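pasting for ref
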Amino acid sequence: MAEEPIVGTPPSTVTNPPRQWGAAAPPNSYPDPDVVVVRPEFRRLTVGNTPLQRLWTGSLWAEGPAWSGQGRYLVFSDVGGDVQYRWTQDDGRMTTFRAPSRNSNGNSFDFSGRQISCEHFTRRVVRWEHDGSLTVLADRYDGKRLNSPNDLVPHPDGSVWFTDPHYGNSLYEGQPDAGGDLDPRPGAPDAGGQAQELANAVYRIAPDGQIAKLTDEVAYPNGLAFSPDHRRLYVADTGPGPRDIKVFDVAPDGTLTGGRVFTDMVVDGIKCGPDGLRVDVYGNLWCASNAGSGALGYSGVLIFDPGGELIGRIRLPEACANVCFGGPKRNRLFMTASQSLYALYVNTQGATPG
């Protein structure tokens, strides 16, 4: 029987001695020292005899992991590399999935098993149909071009909810806005060349294709996730201001009310930056964390209970951008972190597909 982790330790930001990664690295002891139990409630979500694994490295900025239950594979984006990768469960093989990817960022699979993606370059939300064809779900609101859709989440009613900050207005992650010093039409016939027209906001695409703006009170909306009953929506605010996570009540008509701070993302006095989000079947929020190079060990994943209390941490040596639950039992947490893909078996399951 594996030894259970000690609650609240270790307070240090890295393992001692420092952990080594890669196929030739010596194995770590159980329980994994980088799975940190902050509160006793987190123990039931951990597996004492499983390691935190780096499955692959080689991307520029890894984002948007999403699990295909039908295909038994994980797809994720390398935003700067302009490619989507696929990691296959059966043989652990990594292959190029789509290139170019139009600087795709967030990905998910809807309740019919179709991949939905946010494309920075084309400033749109798209869906890949079962026959391989592409459907554009949204590229405008109120007649104006979107900024750069960042992340998205499906709803059981067939709608798709997404965030639209302006992070993709760069040569590296998309295309620059018109009016600056850089060429706004870089090397592609469908480059935009328009200036930003819309405020950063959160949107809902109805099953009939109608697009509604839900809120623009989140300064830099990024990752988002529903509670298991779909009555709450969590939204990460990743801008230079709050850098917190807000939660809204979801009304039966799909509107949002009662926006409030869920967590300020301060851990041990360290301000962590939120990014991608997922919720497990117990309602716990698993949040990607980027604490910067000066706070090694606070980057990774932060786990909050439904009341906003931090209960656990997963420490990674790179800034984590996004997470998802996958595997045949939906009990494996996949983490895209800067240049690498990580995974950890957990004793819970993702509340939604993808």
